[in-house]
């Protein structure tokens, strides 16, 4: 029997409808299982790329020669896969991984994405890939700006805000041209209309990854676009310090990245704490802007955190400041071999005003996120 309230809400256009996958065929391709098996050589181990919480990813080649990433769902996570297909086929942006199609056949659920040949930002930050090369500072800034543009689009570019809920460096993928695109929308949620200020949404099932959870989300289940901003801030610290959020292999005071970051800022030892590869390569005025926005992203209170548009613009400014400082240095040292001095960092640290807003979450302390195959701990209700 039909639910009379449901029918009424639907009649009034107030009931949120999730389109059935069949109805999405016009927006992306529907593949047969035979096509998927042909593309991946029957999910051959040589096609294997990696494994996430929701499924296994393979490299494949479609009949027209297009190289793709094929994500095969674990049986218990087909809901997340359907969510990802429904959302992604309605979103298009240069900084979101494109959905090419899907396959639902028998007990198989498979999603086909554009192939991101350089893997994830996490692979480079944590040296996971065999062909690992440390990323330069400017390169890192470009990648963060791309990710910020993608997230800004999700929050404001569509009719309804989309809260990603799975932002982390392993979900920031890099294509051949090093363009950063956000992936993994299995946990994403539609928010209210994007122009609305009423963004608070109570979420009874807290999902995500330890070390990447906004405090108000864990404690009160309050899910807003500012929860994504918090975790984006955590990623900005990872990019600068070149390490994971939690690392049990480090001395006690360094296990939690944000606690360590705050300590190094307070004591003026940031020069020694950041990724060794970046030492002497960041212009102090650029670092100042970068830390200002990173610290405000991880503010305890969601409404004090910036919107992603502001994050994007500030990172662009930080990149510009770095470019200008580098040009000045190059005019003094035409060989291009120069280092920014430690003393100039100390001077800037004394003036850094963002320290108070840097809030570190204890959530997940004591848990390792240095899992060797890069699958971080999944929190499910
Ligand atoms: N479109 C893609 N192109 C190339 N590699 C991809 C693509 N999507 C995912 N991968 C790779 O496949 C592996 C598994 O990715 P997946 O998104 O399933 O999990 P994850 O983000 O690593 O972990 P979790 O699911 O726990 O968040 C990772 O190494 C990821 O870099």
From TrEMBL:
Pfam families: PK_Tyr_Ser-Thr. It comes from the Eukaryota. Keywords: ATP-binding, Kinase, Nucleotide-binding, Serine/threonine-protein kinase, Transferase. ATP binds at residue 71. Residues 43-319 form the Protein kinase domain. Gene3D superfamilies: Phosphorylase Kinase, domain 1, Transferase(Phosphotransferase) domain 1. One of its GO terms (molecular function) is protein serine/threonine kinase activity. This is Protein kinase domain-containing protein. It comes from Gossypium barbadense.
């Amino acid at each position: 029997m039909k639910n009379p309230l449901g029918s009424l809400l639907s009649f009034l256009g107030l009931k949120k409808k999730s389109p059935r996958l069949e109805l999405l065929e016009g927006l992306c391709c529907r593949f047969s299982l035979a096509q998927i098996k042909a593309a991946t050589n029957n999910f051959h181990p040589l096609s294997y790329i990696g494994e996430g919480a929701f499924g296994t990813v393979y490299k494949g080649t479609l009949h027209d020669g297009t190289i793709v990433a094929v994500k095969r769902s674990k049986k218990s996570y087909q809901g997340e896969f359907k969510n990802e297909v429904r959302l992604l086929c309605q979103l298009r942006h240069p900084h979101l991984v494109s959905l090419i199609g899907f396959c639902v056949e028998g007990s198989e659920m498979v999603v086909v994405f554009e192939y991101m040949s350089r893997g994830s930002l996490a692979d480079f930050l944590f040296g996971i890939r065999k062909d690992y090369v440390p990323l330069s500072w400017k390169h890192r800034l470009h990648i963060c700006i791309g990710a910020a543009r993608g997230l800004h689009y999700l929050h404001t570019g569509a009719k309804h805000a989309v809260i990603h809920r799975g932002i982390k460096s392993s979900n920031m993928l890099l294509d051949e041209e090093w363009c950063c695109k956000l992936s993994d929308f299995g946990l994403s949620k539609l928010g209210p209309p994007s122009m609305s200020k009423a963004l608070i949404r109570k979420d009874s099932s807290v999902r995500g990854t330890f070390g990447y959870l906004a405090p108000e989300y864990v404690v009160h289940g309050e899910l807003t676009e500012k929860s994504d901003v918090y975790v984006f801030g955590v990623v900005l610290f990872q990019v600068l310090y070149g390490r994971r959020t939690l690392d049990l292999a480090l001395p006690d005071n360094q296990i939690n990245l944000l606690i360590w970051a705050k300590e190094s800022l307070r004591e003026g030892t940031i020069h020694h704490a950041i990724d060794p590869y970046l030492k002497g390569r960041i212009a102090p005025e650029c670092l100042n802007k970068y830390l200002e926005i990173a610290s405000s992203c991880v503010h305890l209170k969601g409404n004090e955190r910036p919107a992603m548009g502001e994050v994007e613009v500030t990172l662009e400014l930080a990149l510009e400041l770095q470019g200008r400082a580098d040009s000045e240095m190059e005019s003094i040292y035409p060989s291009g071999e120069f280092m920014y001095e430690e003393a100039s960092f100390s001077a800037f640290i004394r003036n850094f005003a963002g320290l108070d807003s840097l809030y570190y979450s204890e959530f997940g302390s004591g848990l390792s996120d240095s899992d060797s195959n890069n699958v971080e701990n999944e929190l499910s209700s």
